[in-house]
Amino acid sequence: MPEPTDIPSFATTQLALLTTELNAELAETQLLLSSTSPSTLARAGLAILNLNLSSQRTGLGGKTVVELTLDPAFVTKSSGSGKGSGSQDLPEHGIRVGDIVAVSEQPAGAAKKNEKTGLKERGVEGVVGKVGTERVEVVLGKGSGDGKEEERMNQNMNKLLKMTSSEMTPFISTLFGHSSPTPVPSDLSTVNVEWIDPSLNDSQKDAIRFALESREVALIHGPPGTGKTHTLIELILQMLKQGLRLLVCGPSNISVDNIVERLASYKVPMIRLGHPARLLPSVLNHSLDVLTRTSDAAEIVQDIRKEIDAKQASIRKTRNGREKRTIYNELRELRKEFREREKGCVEGLVRSSKVVLATLHGAGGFHLRNQKFDVVIVDEASQALEAQCWVPLLWLKASRLVLAGDHLQLPPTIKSLNSKESKARKKEEKGKKDGEKEEGEGKVIKGMTLETTLFDRLLELHGPSIKRMLTTQYRMHETIMRFPSDELYEGKLVAAEAVKARLLTDLPYEVKETEDTKEPLVFWDTQGGDFPEKTEDEEIGKKAGKGMSLGESKSNELEAALVKLHVSNLVEAGLKPEDIAIVTPYNAQLAVLSQLLKERYPGIELGSVDGFQGREKEAVVVSLVRSNAEHEVGFLGEKRRLNVAMTRPKRHLCVIGDSDTVGRGSPFLKRWMQFLEDHADLRYPNVSDVYVDERGG
Ligand SMILES: Nc1ncnc2c1ncn2[C@@H]1O[C@H](COP(=O)(O)OP(=O)(O)OP(=O)(O)O)[C@@H](O)[C@H]1O
């Protein structure tokens, strides 16, 4: 077993890494805002220009909501639909509900001509509440409610840094490897559980029993399609039956909402903390903001609200100055009481709640101050920064933890991994002698990055005995599953009966049998150098700035033409474009593919591998892009990225790439290329194939 982690050193390292990361993020946004004009941002879908404030109201939680529509004076041919009534369709943009945005004054007149200098004024921050064809609604105020994410993570790491030995609970000691978790018997089949969901499979039941028996920490390892969330729902229900109080978290709002939605069907009374504009509409009824207005306890708060409204109306009727002043004084008192009662109501609601759900960051908010939970459960834990996980753990003095995730898919996205600052920091680390400490600090742990998650670290510290893996997968055809299972999951994955032999031709609508639709796995091998890659500066923020990067990227136009050929063959056979996704690791290739396909097949989904994690489709085409004489594969070399790419499809996976370049990238890639050669339906395309198609279609 590896050495226990020195806590001050861990905290010092995390603090340094978090600072580097924050600086990298700031630098990227700064660069974008200072070097890019508003109109360029708008072209990239990152801004909407020429908006007017059309209305303003008070929304949920007393937050100000502004509605923005296109200024009729600025309507251009490409935007408005000319309905005449003043409202016009907004131009194409990539702004979505839940995005954090700034509403700022647009440079006018002479300033507009000089707009190359970019948007210096950041404006008012808010969260997008609604997006319509003609209007956007923004809920003003800070996105995450209270406090910046970075500040909260830093506070927690500082707390760890200064932790005294009396504060070191057995739980924290286990999390750093200073003690081992209380052993759980390896055979749990005798543990008696009355299952609420009878359809659970054996590995899911085993994982739940394991988590129920564990005292400090349990990991539930859920490879692609194995029903990780499904398992967590049963675990939550079982823990509630045992009378435990639970805090359920995830790194993103969507990961939390996903659980709220599924728990709701079991009528579990629960509270979802978080900014209402960032929650799915289906979970709003469980949100603290709404419950504060609708629950029984809220009635007494509402009574005062009515009184305030009535008093306010009476001011308008009063001419007498003295009377007015009296009413103002009364109003002030009423408002104070309103705030106190609302606070009491909120506290009461949270205190009486057996399950509270929030993002990891949200769990550090003031609503949960001094709250005690028996177990903290974190879904998608391998997508969360470790410092994020410490927010609920330290703030709520947790003593028992369940993490669900898959450390063999992509970790959280880190911007600073290759930044200048991070390189400088590494150099500085190198200069210091091993074990050298600054006064009052821990030493910096070499080789630690923010990509190392709590899930990874715990596995490394305590070994596989602290986890249980789910092994039946409900997504992929057996042939698609084989390689990732053998390479990454010890060959343990089993395809569920219902999915293991499913083909495109078995879809509930008619798909003709062709040489493509009858194959679960197709490989177009472009080896030979006729399909070369190209290096280009990545376009900014294609599609809503997701995966926005200013670095250089790779594309491969001929390979993109092959993608188009394959897609058109599938569609010709009857497959709906909505059932097809194309994924590629390179944003520049995404742009090329988008131009080639989006207009002809609007329903098709195009995405980066990183952006497609967590998703699935009936048919997936993977464009590998790299093809060069030097056999360079760049970040294709990352196993976890390839794992995500190859485990998205249900019935059909088509890989397009140059086995000669890709196969020399790493032993893993070599084995994958060999596997495809042995098990996929192989095609060796000629450049003329795609040229013919281009002329013909
Ligand atoms: N025991 C089961 N029997 C039948 N279907 C199941 C079972 N467990 C999970 N599934 C199905 O498998 C699919 C994936 O489950 P779920 O959405 O819970 O997984 P996830 O953990 O959220 O996703 P992933 O496994 O991709 O991370 C769902 O369609 C779910 O209905």
From TrEMBL:
Domain AAA+ ATPase intervals: 214-465
SMART domains tied to this protein: AAA, DEXDc
One Pfam family of this chain: SMUBP-2_HCS1_1B
Entry keyword DNA-binding: yes
Compositional bias (Basic and acidic residues): 418-441
Keywords: ATP-binding, Cytoplasm, DNA-binding, Helicase, Hydrolase, Nucleotide-binding, Nucleus
Chain spans, region Disordered: 415-441
Gene Ontology cellular-component annotations: cytoplasm; nucleus
Catalysed reaction, written as an equation: ATP + H2O = ADP + phosphate + H(+)
Localisation per UniProt entry: Cytoplasm; Nucleus
GO MF, one annotated term: DNA binding
UniProt xrefs under InterPro entries: AAA+_ATPase, Coronavir_polyprotein_1ab, DNA2/NAM7-like_C, DNA2/NAM7_AAA_11, Helicase_ATP-bd, P-loop_NTPase, SF1_C_Upf1, SMUBP-2_HCS1_1B
Helicase ATP-binding domain residues: 196-430
Enzyme Commission designation: 3.6.4.12
PANTHER family per the UniProt record, alphabetical: DNA-BINDING PROTEIN SMUBP-2, DNA2/NAM7 HELICASE FAMILY MEMBER
Family of the protein in this entry: Belongs to the DNA2/NAM7 helicase family.
Protein name: DNA helicase
Organism encoding this protein: Lophium mytilinum
